[in-house]
Amino acid sequence: MSIFLFSCESEEDDSGIIDSNDNNTSTSWADNYWKKSGEEVYIDLTSETPKFCSNGNPVPGTYSSLRWENTNIAFFTLFNAGDEVEFRIQKNGNSLILAPWDAAAQQTHNPSTYSLSNEFPCDGGGGSTTDNGEIAFYTRKDNGCSSISITVGSITQYLQYYYPDGISDCTQGEVFSLPVGNHSFTAKCNSTTWSGNFQITSGGCLIFDLQ
Predict the structure, then answer these.
(1) Cα–Cα distance, 179 to 173 (Å, whole number)
(2) What are the pLDDT digits (tens) for 132-154?
(3) Which CATH number fits domain 28-117: 2.40.128, 3.40.630, 2.40.160, 1.10.287?
(4) What is the rounded end-to-end Cα distance, in angstroms, of the chain?
(5) pTM for the full model?
(6) Other CB atoms closer than 10 Å to residue 4's CB: what's the count?
């Protein structure tokens, strides 16, 4: 892995990144099979990576792992034939709302409602996960901003917690699940910026400290 880092002085504001010790969420409500209203489309959320089934056939593409914003909202990315589409899942009573997510506009488009299902017709399902790996970004200190924006390709995520003791794997920090290959990133916190290149391997986990 090769990563090149640069930064400049930071301008502080009145808010800061939250200590990771204060982060306590429960997302077990989503750990089920779900069926789209009025259609034979299913989603399997029983693992970190979603799987889709449409009319008895796995839906093609590579899916990232779920990225939980809070206990009710999660995001994931579909990689298919060079395209990347981000989706948002949101709890809505006993159902969930799934919709493409426009990060720039901070809004969804064409939402669909899914209800609980006792089956997933594709027997383990849609999408390929074997060609994915992960990178976890973290920081050990409050950098003086409410969150650090991190962009890899067309995907932007936000690191909202700091980890004084560091992290040891890809279950903490702000995690990107990405296809195998070379990628680059940029990150920003007020006037402090980071950038670099890294290589994802199948099933691998990279850890990067935003110092």
Answers:
(1) 19
(2) 788 999 999 888 888 899 999 87
(3) 2.40.128
(4) 17
(5) 0.52
(6) 10
Residue 160, H or E segment: none
Summarised one tens digit per residue, pLDDT across range 20-54 is 454 444 678 888 999 999 999 999 998 888 889 98
DSSP 64: P
User: Burial level of 169, CB count in 10 A (0-12/13-18/19+)?
Assistant: exposed
CATH number of 18-23+130-209: 2.60.40.10
Q: What residues contact residue 76 under an 8 Å CB cut-off, 6+ apart?
A: 49, 50, 63, 64, 65, 66, 67, 86, 87, 89
Q: How far apart are CA 183 and CA 69, in angstroms?
A: 23
